[in-house]
Write a structure and sequence with these properties.
- By secondary structure, this protein is mainly β.
- The protein folds into four domains: 35-125; 127-242, Immunoglobulin-like, CATH 2.60.40; 243-329, Immunoglobulin-like; 335-431, Immunoglobulin-like (Sandwich), CATH 2.60.40.
- The chain is built from one helix and 34 strands.
- The chain has one helix at 2-28; strands at residues 38-46, 51-55, 58-64, 73-75, 82-86, 92-96, 105-112, 118-123, 133-140, 148-153, 166-169, 178-181, 183-191, 194-207, 211-219, 226-232, 237-240, 244-251, 258-263, 266-273, 276-277, 281-284, 286-294, 297-305, 310-317, 322-329, 339-348, 355-359, 362-368, 377-380, 382-391, 399-406, 411-418, 424-429.
- A five-stranded mixed sheet has the order 12-9-15-16-17, with no helix packed on it. Strands 18, 21, 22, 25 and 26 form a five-stranded mixed sheet that branches. The chain has a four-stranded mixed sheet with strand order 4-1-7-8, with no helix packed on it.
- It starts with a helix and ends with a strand.
Length: 431
């Protein structure tokens, strides 16, 4: 009797325990997700402060900032008509229809400058690697930076003897996964095929065991340096920002005065006669000490450099009374591959009237103040540009030149320096 009673009682309890066990197992394995749906998130790698994502006429993400987000939403794979807009705007910046599969995860990576937004779909469904290994791939989402090489090395390894993990990553391209040992690595990015043209240097990037990660290269404000996002598959997104700026010195003082300049402890030029424009040098971003000597007479000041930006330190005026002007340089490429970009820099010492510039009689710059630069203008590339610089209230051009080459895809600055009676034009290819 007692044995029969125990069996009758224990059977339903075994059933209850089994049900609870299954429920716990399903919860642990993500059983709460609808396996008929795809999982999607929006990653903002663009110049827009915030982006919205609409799928099938329903706004699924709102005001996603740069580097966000890590959350996923479920969408029907059969209804994926999508659009991206600026945060809070009803006007679509980009429309697309991604191809999604049920029970799979994806990131919609939005990238590009304002007015030229693009997107690429990142599949986030790779099998994790073995213990002690990391899968890493590269996406170039910095359109103005050009093709890039990515190096993953020990901290002390020289680039000259290093082999890139990813070679010539083109804009918008998604690279294949590479398997690397899980560790803390130094990640450096250069222009494709040019180890001397360093665009990003990250001294300590942690790649975890069994991690599947995507390194997304994003543009700095100057158009040449880059930042990065490290996206863990179905996990967190880490910002890896550049810590440097690029700075050059333009010596425009009269009478061939010698100019030496050091910014943030980096010597830009040790002292040559004006006019000259140095190459860009990498300088730590943030507050920077500035030391300038004109004809060996020193002066000191400070400035603040934004990470990822390009600057020109313009030294103009006379050797007896030099002036310093900081110009923030826009070295982004023209939107058309057949176009060049050109700007005017007013560095005449004795003329306060604003300057204007034409190229082949086409307006390029207008009303440029002394010690300032114009916004760059896009022009069709040519080998025979006729440049003319005029001053407000002055009858004749203060400078002119014929048959000047403006290469397609290049960026230029025309520095007009010296005294107005004998102005000199220095046409510099910035990139």
């Amino acid at each position: 009797m007692s044995a029969i009673w125990r069996t009758a009682i224990s059977s339903p309890w075994r059933w209850v325990v089994a049900v609870l066990g299954c429920a716990l197992l399903l919860a642990a394995c993500g059983g709460g997700a609808d396996r008929t749906k795809a999982r999607v998130r929006l990653v903002n790698a663009s110049a827009y402060a915030g982006l919205d994502l609409t799928v099938d006429d329903t706004r699924r993400f709102s005001a996603v900032a740069y580097g966000g987000s890590a959350e996923f939403v479920e969408v029907s794979p059969s209804n994926t008509v999508s659009s991206i807009s600026s945060a809070g705007s009803a006007t679509s910046l980009l429309s697309f229809t991604p191809s999604l599969a049920k029970d799979k995860a994806y990131s919609v990576l939005a990238y590009g400058a304002q007015g030229s937004l693009a997107q690429v779909l990142l599949d986030e469904n790779s099998n994790e690697p073995d213990t002690g290994k990391t899968l890493l791939r590269v996406v170039n989402a910095a359109p103005d930076a050009g093709s890039l090489d990515v190096y993953v090395t020990a901290s002390g390894d020289a680039l000259t003897t290093s082999v890139p993990l990813q070679s010539a990553a083109a804009k918008g391209s998604v690279g294949s996964y590479s398997t690397v040992n899980s560790a803390t690595w130094r990640v450096r990015v250069t222009a494709a095929g040019s180890k001397d043209d360093l665009r990003l240097d990250l001294p300590a990037v942690v790649l975890a065991s069994k991690q599947v990660a995507t390194l997304v290269l994003t543009p700095g404000s100057g158009g040449v340096l880059v930042n990065a996002l490290l996206i863990t598959q179905e996990g967190a997104i880490a910002r890896l920002d550049n810590s440097q700026a690029r700075v050059r010195v333009a010596a425009a003082v009269t009478d061939s005065g010698t100019v030496a300049a050091t910014v943030g402890g980096v010597t830009l030029r040790s002292g040559l006669g004006a006019p000259f424009v140095s190459l860009y040098s990498l300088v730590p971003a943030g507050s920077a000490a500035v030391s300038v000597a004109v004809n060996a007479v020193p002066s000191a000041s400070t400035t603040t450099l934004a990470a990822g930006a390009d600057y020109t330190l313009l030294v103009h005026g006379t050797p007896a009374a030099p002036r310093l002007s900081w110009l923030q340089d826009d070295n982004r490429l023209a939107t058309s591959s057949s176009a060049a970009r050109l700007r005017l820099v007013h560095a005449l010492a004795d003329l306060t009237a604003p300057l204007s510039l034409t190229s082949n009689f086409q307006p390029v710059a207008d009303n440029v103040a002394q010690g300032a630069a114009s916004t760059a203008t896009s022009l069709e590339g040519t080998t025979k540009a006729s440049l003319s610089v005029t001053a407000l209230g002055v009858a004749l051009p203060v400078f002119s030149a014929i048959e000047q080459e403006l290469k397609s895809g290049a960026v230029y600055s025309l520095f007009v320096v010296g005294k107005s009676a004998a102005a000199v034009g220095v046409l510099v290819q910035d990139r």
